[in-house]
Amino acid sequence: MSTGWSIYVIALVVLNLLGLWGLLAWTSRRRPGDPKPDETSHVWDGDITEYNKPLPRWWIIGFYLTMVYSVAYLLWYPGLGNFKGFGNWTSAAEHDADKAKQDAVLAETFRPYDGRPISELAGDPRAVELGRAIFANTCATCHGSSAQGAVGYPNLTDDIWHWGGSEEQVLQTVLDGREGVMPEWGTVLTGMGGENAVLSVATYVRSLAGEVPENDFFAAQGKGLYEGVCVACHGIDGKGNQDLGAPDLTDGYAMYGNSVESIMETIRNGRHGVMPAHRDLLGETRSRLVASYVWSLSSNTAGREQSPEAQ
């Protein structure tokens, strides 16, 4: 708040308090010549008379005490423009104190799960239930209440992991987040292979997942362009690179859709996906619990335990 607005607020508050004080003092005082409370001359039906009796003294004193309390309140708490108050109270400090108390309660609740391996927690029904509750509050907005994702948000119930599905990799994803970037290749590919270059690469990419190409020429041209541009991330065989988050193009799953149009859009204009970091929001133990829940959802948990590198 600027100094000018601060002065305006302070002046407005002071004038209102003084005005209320003066109004109360003026209306509660009887003056010479005022009619008696029962002599207002307002009479109806012969025997119904309107009186004008003053408020009881204790009530008037109560009003004054209320205004005195208001002044004390405004001096102690920040209610006068930029004046912070002698109590140095802030809503942020109040929030932080309340949060610290609740965090202590949560820490005690989650203490039995501190540092336990993800696979061990995934076998503990109580831990999985807690992880499911944390997931519903924190992760379901993007991944859905059933964790099956949506367009642009990965399905967490299958065994496809772009950044790896080992215990450590899943936990790292939750704690520190991920950022996947697919560059825009439309202009580059068009310069290399003409106006059908993007379509050709999309056709070849679909063939890597077992789709029979409708046009063998496009598939053949797409293979050459793929090997000149895409292999750096996705590999010569299309198996991807988990260190980069580059997806496996041979498994038939495409997070943004596997139609020709969707794949062409991805190739032409790129994609930018962000999984937010939850270390500061959830802390180590709650992140570990939600990671164990996510890890337990995969249909290939047993196989992944035996061979993490297969993911």
From TrEMBL:
The chain crosses the membrane at residues 6-26, 58-76. PROSITE patterns: CYTC (PS51007). C-type cytochrome. Part of the cbb3-type cytochrome c oxidase complex. It comes from Luteimonas padinae. Pathway: Energy metabolism; oxidative phosphorylation. Residues 126-209, 217-298 form the Cytochrome c domain. This is Cbb3-type cytochrome c oxidase subunit. The gene is ccoP. Keywords: Cell inner membrane, Cell membrane, Electron transport, Heme, Hydrogen ion transport, Ion transport, Iron, Membrane, Metal-binding, Oxidoreductase, Repeat, Respiratory chain, Transmembrane, Transmembrane helix, Transport. Pfam families: Cytochrome_CBB3, FixP_N.
